[in-house]
Amino acid sequence: MKSINTNRVIVPAYLVSILLFSIIVFFDTWESMVSIWIRSETFTHGFIVIPISLWLIWSKKEIHAYLQPSSASFLGLSFLIFNGFIWFLSSITQTLVIQQYTLIGMLIGSIWFYLGNATTKKIIFPLAFLYLMVPVGEALLPYLMGYTANFTIALLRLTGITVYREGMHFSLVSGQWSVVEACSGLRYLLASITLGTIYAYITYNKLYKRAIFIFLSIVIPIIANGFRAYMIVMIGHLSNMELAVGIDHLIYGAVFFAIIIFMMFYVGSFWRDPSPEANGSSHTKTQSTTYNLKQNSMIGIVLLLSLSSWPFLNNLLQSRYHPQTNIPEWPVLTQNPQWQEVKTPNWSWKPKFDGVVTESLRYFKKQDTILGIYQANFGDEQQGTELVNTQNVLIRLKQRKKWHYIEQSDFKFEAIDSPVDYAVIRNNRLAEDIVTIKWYQIGPYITNNIYLAKIYQLLKHLTLNTNPEIYNVIFTKSPNKNQIDQGNMPKWINSILSKKQ
């Protein structure tokens, strides 16, 4: 009678159990990833990352016919525990992207711990591929948009075309253009990284070749997106704004991207490594280990504790932490007799954030100057309604047809002795400019840096400091356009809100 290798059954079952237990214990984090895959076409590829990872393992079946545990890896266990600890810290501050990355790290660490170092080493590339499930990249949008605008305008001027620019908006004699999120090339970049990673793994055996090709999969689409944007603008300009201004805009871009990817793969094929069978290389066979019932039970218990302890600690801490939801007054305005509170002026813009528990919007006047101060308290933060969130923007999605940024920077705000974010936004229809500054007040800490803000939140939560965490926005209607053009507005703001007054 033919014997059956129980590893063929036990190992896959164990690995599936690890994944299912991870989904149960970290359901909120998994749900946060899946919900982004569903609502955003940019990250839809997340659904196929696990199947592709399995296929990448199968594509190298000549190296490992099936997974066999060598011996439990304490290095893998350490990796699992480290990721769990970072997940715990990031869950305190609702730092979603770190939670998602460490969740994948815990999944990889669990597999590593069970299969052992020797076996995991053979499949480390497909396991690392799992990190592409994380829907990350939106933080790059401002930089990619800025690059696209700069690149396009530079090429237009080299072509001899006169361009007038305001932020991400620019005008030609033939018409007006705007660089929006869809023009950033983020979708093309992520698709190129995913496809380039797959291609590098199945085409090359040498690590340096894989690394070079993946690097080129990042750089080439960024450069190509600049040429794509230039091509679209030129088509619109030369056709007197009849072409490349509708759905054909997207079609031209998709065709151009497909050509770039094809050229990358075609050129990359010249350096293809021969398959292991073709070059006659041999692979050291992994020492197969069959865990007995006691060993399987012990490994299972360690995995269960290593995974489930972090959500338990997080829930325990959150149950004891109840931040204040009040709005503290800002004494620079409220306790200064030179500033008198007034009714809401007839301005066409005011700040507004979603998910706020308590908010305050007040206006103060000194001589001919009116300032608005908006303060938002997000209370006990939930996913999607955090103090530090990329959705907390000055120009909301429904306002983008009317408003756009014409200047963004930071400067040292003397009234709080700290840097603040400075921006000027313009109403396209009314030719109205609004000057804004904003910063975070997290208990005793003040910052405009999102990373420092998260660290300060973490310190507050770990010490159970329940002082309010406030998002502050001060804004005013620009009194003189020339002050903006000459870069004098920050100095003017400091002068009217000086501590010395």
Key phrases:
3 domains, alpha+beta, three-stranded antiparallel sheet, 49% helix, eight-stranded antiparallel sheet
Which helices and strands, and how do they pair?
Elements: H1 7-25, H2 27-39, H3 49-59, H4 74-92, H5 96-115, H6 117-122, H7 124-129, H8 141-158, E1 164-166, E2 169-172, E3 175-178, H9 186-203, H10 207-238, H11 247-268, H12 276-279, H13 293-320, H14 331-334, E4 340-342, E5 358-366, E6 369-377, E7 403-413, E8 418-427, E9 432-442, E10 445-447, H15 450-462, E11 469-477, H16 481-485, H17 489-496
Antiparallel strand pairs: 1-2, 2-3, 4-5, 5-6, 6-11, 7-8, 8-9, 9-10, 9-11
Helix pairs in contact: 1-2, 1-5, 1-13, 2-5, 4-5, 4-13, 8-10, 9-10, 10-11
Shape: flat
Distance between the termini: 95 Å
The helix count comes to 17
Q: What pattern of helices and strands is seen along the backbone?
A: HHHHHHHHEEEHHHHHHEEEEEEEHEHH
Derived structural class: alpha+beta
- Give the helix proportion (percent range): 40-55%
Poorly predicted runs = 278-284
| Main beta sheet | 8 strands, antiparallel
Mean pLDDT: 85
How large is the radius of gyration?
28 Å
Describe the protein.
- The protein has helices spanning 7-25, 27-39, 49-59, 74-92, 96-115, 117-122, 124-129, 141-158, 186-203, 207-238, 247-268, 276-279, 293-320, 331-334, 450-462, 481-485, 489-496; strands at 164-166, 169-172, 175-178, 340-342, 358-366, 369-377, 403-413, 418-427, 432-442, 445-447, 469-477.
- Helix 10 (207-238) runs antiparallel to helix 11.
- It folds into three domains: 7-136 and 290-320, no CATH class; 139-271, no CATH class; 331-496, no CATH class.
- The chain is built from 17 helices and eleven strands.
- The radius of gyration is 28 Å and the shape is flat.
- It has 501 residues and is α+β, with helices and mostly antiparallel strands.
- Helices cover 49% and strands 15% of the residues.
